[in-house]
Amino acid sequence: MRAALAWVGAATVGMIALGVAGAVGTGALGRVWNLRAELRPIEVVDRRGEPLGVIDHCRAGNAVNAVPCRESLSVPLTGVSEAFLLAYVAKEDVRFFSHVGVDLGRLPRALLSGAGGSTITMQLLKNNVLAGHFDYDTDRRGPLLTLTRKATEFVLAPVVTWRYGRREVLAMSVNSLPWIGIGQRKGVYDAARAVFGVEPADLTLAQSAFLVGLLPAPGRYLVTDTTPPETATARFRWMRTQQLVTLEILRSRGLIGQGEYLEAVSTPLQPRLWRAEYAGSGTDLRVVQAARNPAYTNEPEPVWAMQELVRRELRAAGLDPKRVGRVVLTVDAAAQAALTRRVTGEGATGPRPTGVAEGAAIVDVRGGGIVALASSTGGNQSSDAGRQWAVSALRPVASTVKPLLYAAAFGDGLTQLSAFPDQATRYGSQAIRNSSGTFLGRAVTVREANARSLNTVAVQVGTPREKALRAVLDAAGYQEDASNRSSPSLGTYRAAPLDVAAAYASFAGGGLLCRPHLLAEVTDTGGRPLPLPRPDCQPLWDEVVAFEAFDLLTAAVSTDASHVPFLRPSLLQRLQGRSMPLGAKSGTTDDVNDTWCAAVTPQYAMAVWIGDPDGRQSVPVTLYREQTACREVALLRELPHERRNLDSPPGVTRVAGAAVPVPGLNPRNPAPVAP
């Protein structure tokens, strides 16, 4: 007996030493002390205080952090149904409220198997503090790694219990459960919404038992259209079995009555992703067949697709995202929802063909705040900043460059009424043709040339002013394509939709070019405001030139020569007071790999790009012939406007309906400032 006790003592001391070494080696002790703050996500609201979701303090790049970046939302225990809490504790750790974080009766099983013996507190440590270390959430496996992790959990679990108390530990646990298999979700809120479409407070006993039953293998919940019927049915039967096991545990321990048990087992659950057929009733209810629900959709919270952009902007402002508790974005929740619906194919223009990407951005002309941002690839959103096409798709801007060209020319003596012949033109050795393939054979004004998108006039205006145009494009953040030898007046420079929207915003912003930004206010985890840099705005145009360019764009919509007449306000919009001035310009590259539209109103600027980010395939004919990108910018008329008109600055008069400088005034643009 003495020898046995000596071995137990030695093993205990050895395990404690191993656990202490594991805690020190991973830096886990300090993170345990700050675990509540680390697991509390960044609350994100729009500029009117409407919730947009949350952002995890998560893994950035290759650095090991609390959790991988996933959409999540934390809720207090009072926001979780009693049925779920009962099922979770009974199934995972029935003595949770009586031990100090380690259940000695289950410890041998935990050490020997590496799973199944952990307490809720130990699971919290494994899923968060120790994630990315040892054998969990890594590609490494081995008994020594498992033993070291378990020993580290054994040492840290009592510290967590003492530091936070059992109720807080339970709250942190249910909000960080690893629903990795369900669309990269975690926590009870995301599980309840993704699986059943309900709030966690409304989970029934049957639904709670189903979710808790999934915890050992949440990835088995996923099913695709190509999953064989027998495989899908077997998978759903396994989930049904796990649900029944959980309910039986609750009944056998006297935690629910016989009536509650019978009601739960006889409920034919229909998770949103699945379509299941049942037979029988009561305790004889059984699954006959199950498959993926073809009508299933699961849109993430709006901030999900922007979370890396927010983190990037926080770091650029010199702020550590871990210190941030709440951010107010310049985003408008209603505009964001409307833009997302359009970009993901639910709007008036319909779904995008497979492989066709779209990026769209709306900015406020008063300072460059981003009002809405949405991207898609075949209809799927992504939180990967490299797939946020509205920000990252650097594509040739085509004819959307022409208003920038003409604005540069307006600062060099030209006006909207300056005339040029629409005839055969050359740029070096290259013959310039119009998109129509024909020439008008007469002189046309810059105003008409822009409305008709005539390449010949653009090259005639741009060739002697190419240096000035390149300086403007550099200042606006556009990038030169060294491999394209054609005239920059035809849109050979590359830019993302967000940069194009910012450039167009300068026409309604008095000539100021403001760098787009998402952050309006930031507070730390204690609610104290954190400093943000002032919006970066630089003069790009003389204010007379900016107004003349704005008027040029509105003429491209309103005049008889318009190439986008469908953007004119309808009778209903006029009656609703939505007939504010709107100017727009479309563009399509010669290889038709890109189609664009950029637009501006007195308050907003918007750019839409549709195409192949890699430039390998052409956009389907219908998308550019029907001016799909410009039909998207019609959304601007639906947004509430505080600025409904743009007042003309001193020095502007109208001749033949066009805004031009008063006689004798020769506006000059300031020297562009490169970013």
UniProtKB/TrEMBL annotation:
Q: Name one Pfam family in it.
A: Transgly
Give the Glycosyl transferase family domain ranges: 71-239
Q: What is its EC number?
A: 2.4.99.28
Q: Which SUPFAM superfamilies match?
A: beta-lactamase/transpeptidase-like (SSF56601), Lysozyme-like (SSF53955)
| Penicillin-binding protein transpeptidase domain sequence ranges | 360-615
Reactions catalysed: [GlcNAc-(1->4)-Mur2Ac(oyl-L-Ala-gamma-D-Glu-L-Lys-D-Ala-D-Ala)](n)-di-trans,octa-cis-undecaprenyl diphosphate + beta-D-GlcNAc-(1->4)-Mur2Ac(oyl-L-Ala-gamma-D-Glu-L-Lys-D-Ala-D-Ala)-di-trans,octa-cis-undecaprenyl diphosphate = [GlcNAc-(1->4)-Mur2Ac(oyl-L-Ala-gamma-D-Glu-L-Lys-D-Ala-D-Ala)](n+1)-di-trans,octa-cis-undecaprenyl diphosphate + di-trans,octa-cis-undecaprenyl diphosphate + H(+)
Query: What InterPro entries does the database record attribute to this sequence?
Result: Beta-lactam/transpept-like, Glyco_trans_51, Glycosyltr_51/Transpeptidase, Lysozyme-like_dom_sf, PBP_transglycosylase, PCN-bd_Tpept
- Keyword annotations: Carboxypeptidase, Glycosyltransferase, Hydrolase, Multifunctional enzyme, Protease, Transferase
UniProt name for this protein: peptidoglycan glycosyltransferase
